[in-house]
User: Which sequence fits this backbone?
């Protein structure tokens, strides 16, 4: 049982080592919302809300999430005693949507429970793997040649899956040279972040010749019906990311045949209780899931790595090591990747498995607010 005594909200800013470009825009600096939860015995956990600065990926932003936690969610969880598994239902009774805000809180509660029982977050969630395979998500590059060069570097580093961001006009011509050079040696995927419409059917169909592992979220974030129609015309499996915000949407995807895989991000679906439910729905329907990323700091990464150690995470996750994103991460040790493209799951370390470097966090802090029961 957890009895929450205080929640500290913080915003930090971390500069990306390289700008990250997608169909929805460019990112140079990541504004990151961190939460520090403290229970009645003084135990503490750090967690991360994945909301971004602008509402391009989802309707939520770091500012709406801050408002939601501060105004509605913190009063629901503070001063009450409950199991982490019950937290989502408690918040969902009173607050619609705001999944990212809820997830930031809920996942921290799981970490607190893991700390208190002396077990790792991964084992508390039911994880079984000591290592998980890693893929990379490469942002849009200025030319096919530049992309090919980036892919070569990632291959040399050991990545097990290469996902490339695409948008109309920057798709087949960018992807074909990769396939020609690599043959079928590496699983290849493309992520459109909702940049296409059904009227782009011909462009999307032309991608079938590449034999990609998947195409991620080609159509609108809230549109399952048109994804189902598109999937009927494509041989490449559609993987949904933005569209899957809870377990019902995962069931709908399966029923409508709107996609054949799920990019599962606990931070997008309201936290671990919902992520576990989606994991199980997919497992029962032979739908593979894999763990996506949101350019998290090393804190958010810990939660993703823990989840990715579950059995139905059967494809490499977007779980790049700290060095890919940051000059200096805020956790010790930083996240690393082996030359064989795997990240170690700290399954024998209590809690999230890394320590937060609070001095560094303090240096990067832009605003902070503590709410007590
Ligand atoms: O669509 O998967 C996505 C990053 C931010 C928001 C959305 C997405 C991404 C990525 C990067 O693809 C994954 C990562 O390396 O964290
Ligand atoms: Mg995506």
Assistant:
């Amino acid at each position: 049982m957890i009895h929450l005594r205080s929640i500290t909200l913080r915003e930090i800013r971390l500069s990306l080592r390289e700008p990250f470009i997608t169909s929805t825009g460019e990112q140079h600096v990541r504004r990151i919302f961190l939460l520090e939860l403290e229970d009645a015995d003084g135990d503490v956990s750090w967690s991360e809300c994945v909301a971004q600065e602008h509402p391009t990926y989802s309707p939520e932003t770091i500012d709406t999430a801050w408002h939601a936690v501060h105004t509605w969610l913190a009063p629901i969880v503070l001063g009450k005693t409950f199991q982490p598994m019950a937290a989502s239902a408690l918040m969902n009774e009173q607050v619609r949507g705001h999944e990212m805000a809820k997830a930031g809180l809920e996942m921290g509660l799981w970490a607190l429970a893991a700390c208190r029982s002396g077990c790792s977050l991964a084992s508390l969630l039911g994880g079984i793997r000591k290592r998980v395979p890693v893929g990379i998500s490469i942002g849009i590059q200025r030319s096919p040649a530049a992309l090919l060069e980036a892919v070569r570097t990632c291959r040399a580093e050991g990545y097990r899956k290469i996902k490339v961001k695409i948008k109309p006009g920057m798709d087949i011509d960018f992807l074909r040279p990769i396939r020609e050079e690599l043959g079928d040696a590496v699983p290849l995927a493309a992520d459109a972040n909702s940049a296409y419409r059904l009227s782009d059917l011909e462009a999307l169909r032309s991608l079938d010749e590449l034999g990609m592992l998947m195409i991620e979220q080609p159509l609108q974030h809230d549109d399952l019906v048109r994804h189902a129609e598109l999937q009927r015309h494509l041989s490449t499996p559609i993987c949904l990311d933005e569209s899957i915000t809870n377990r019902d949407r995962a069931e709908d995807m399966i029923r409508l045949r709107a996609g054949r895989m799920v990019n599962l991000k606990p931070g997008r679906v309201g936290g671990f209780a919902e992520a576990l439910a989606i994991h199980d729905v997919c497992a029962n329907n032979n739908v593979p899931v894999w763990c996506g990323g949101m350019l998290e700091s090393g804190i958010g990464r810990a939660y993703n790595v823990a989840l990715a150690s579950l059995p139905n995470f059967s494809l490499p996750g977007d779980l790049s090591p700290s060095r890919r994103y940051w000059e200096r991460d805020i956790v010790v040790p930083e996240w690393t990747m082996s030359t064989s493209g795997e990240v170690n799951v700290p399954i024998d370390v209590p809690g999230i498995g890394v320590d937060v470097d609070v001095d560094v966090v303090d240096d990067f802090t832009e605003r902070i607010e503590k709410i007590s029961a």
About this structure: The chain has two domains: 2-118+356-368, 123-344.
